[in-house]
Amino acid sequence: MTVKEYHTAPAEEKKNPWVQTPLRESYALSEAAGCRIFLKLENLQPSGSFKTRGIGYYILRRLEELPLGSRPHIFASSGGNAGLAAVHSARALGLQCTVVVPTATSALMVAKLRAAGAHDVIQHGAAWKDADTYLRTEVMPRAPQPTIYCPPFDHPDIWAGNSTVMHEIAAQLDSPPDVLICSVGGGGLMNGICQAMDDLKMYTPTILALETAGAESLNAALHARELITLPKITSQATSLGCAKVTEATFKYAQRANVRSVVLPDAEAAMGCWRLADDERMMVELACGVNVALCYDGRLEKALGRPVRRDDVVVIVLCGGSNVTSDMLCGWRKEYAYVEEELDMQGKRDSGYGIVPKPGSHLQETPCKDQAVVQAVARAHHEFAVPLCEHAARLEDICVTREREQESETDRRLVAPVFDEELLGVRECGEIGQSEEREQDGEEGCC
């Protein structure tokens, strides 16, 4: 299985608000999952998420319905990724976009909408429905030019736009993947993927539809055997916070090759920080829930069968803008128990008693001094320091220590040097600064 070079024609790429994104094999995630993991990097879309495809395609179709040369004003009511996609798509097409968001929308997202070039960002109403109603009844009627209203996900043209991601994946691989993993909020992405698979007559891949607990509207509908509306969204993965999926999503999910999977916010957060450690990419919880399946046997449980080394698994890394280095750091502290519980399973009764997990950086090191290895594991366990940030220096430290042992140097002299050099960064704020530098393009330690 190889990834083929595939490029959209320049003329086509120029007129589309979205871009073709790379499909890259992740060796770190492949090692963790026990199979071949490919990442479809939708986080590289202009708006930061796959939403650019569906929203952009929808706007193009509406433009076709207007007289030639029309310059409509684009309107959207999403304070999240769909709103950003509308702004970016409008700008790519030389149009203006106004977004109305609820008053509860975070200052971060309002700032990102303004920075993306929104003509105006209006905050009104306590919930999305209030903002959407205000947009339709008060704001749009006052516009002096033609208008286009952008729904966030529930429209066949949005699904058709989202289907382009699956067509790209099919063109970039030699053969269909064994497994495809995607997030489900309202269902727009999954609808597009299933629609493309039907067009391509691709019926063999297993689709894992991921949701977070507290936003599992699809999973709840499948259990109830009918579409239902969640009484409340309690998950922190707000991009998945749709109380009811589309009817098309519910129908697609009943196919034999589709499996609904729900993970808690804590594991979604773990997927985010491990992706940052392993691939130096920041994504929000709605995307991290997909990545979480790669670790600690979760993929095997989700599939209900053993994972094979030659399985080709594609994760649609849907992206999302509701994430910062400080948020990653906060999740790591809040949900540290996710990894601590696994570390506890590997403890020994002697010394610090932490045994490196199979396939970890610690197990792969040639260091023979188990005291050093145990100290590294203890540092990771107690301070939540990402192993991959410092493991590259472990071998040098081990060599130095072994030389000191050979010369009968007092072993205690090594400890302070080890703590200062290997741990390097202990405070949460400093870890966030390190991640920000990596995001600016500086070479990381991994």
From TrEMBL:
Residues in the signal sequence: none
UniProt key word Nucleotidyltransferase: no
UniProt superkingdom: Eukaryota
Start and end residues of each Tryptophan synthase beta chain-like PALP domain: 20-319
Cofactor(s) recorded in Swiss-Prot or TrEMBL: pyridoxal 5'-phosphate
Gene3D superfamilies assigned to the protein according to its UniProt record, in alphabetical order: 3.40.50.1100
Annotated catalysed reactions: L-serine = pyruvate + NH4(+)
Keywords in alphabetical order: Cytoplasm, Gluconeogenesis, Lyase, Pyridoxal phosphate
Magnesium among keywords: no
A single MF term (Gene Ontology): L-serine ammonia-lyase activity
GO cellular component assignments: cytoplasm
InterPro entries: Ser/Thr_Dehydratase, TrpB-like_PALP, TrpB-like_PALP_sf
Known pathway: Carbohydrate biosynthesis; gluconeogenesis
EC numbers on record: 4.3.1.17
Gene Ontology process terms (BP): gluconeogenesis; isoleucine biosynthetic process; L-serine catabolic process; L-threonine catabolic process
Pfam families (alphabetical): PALP
Location in or out of the cell: Cytoplasm
Recorded family membership: Belongs to the serine/threonine dehydratase family.
PANTHER family xrefs: CATABOLIC L-SERINE_THREONINE DEHYDRATASE (PTHR48078:SF2), THREONINE DEHYDRATASE, MITOCHONDRIAL-RELATED (PTHR48078)
Protein name: L-serine ammonia-lyase
Organism of provenance: Dothidotthia symphoricarpi CBS 119687
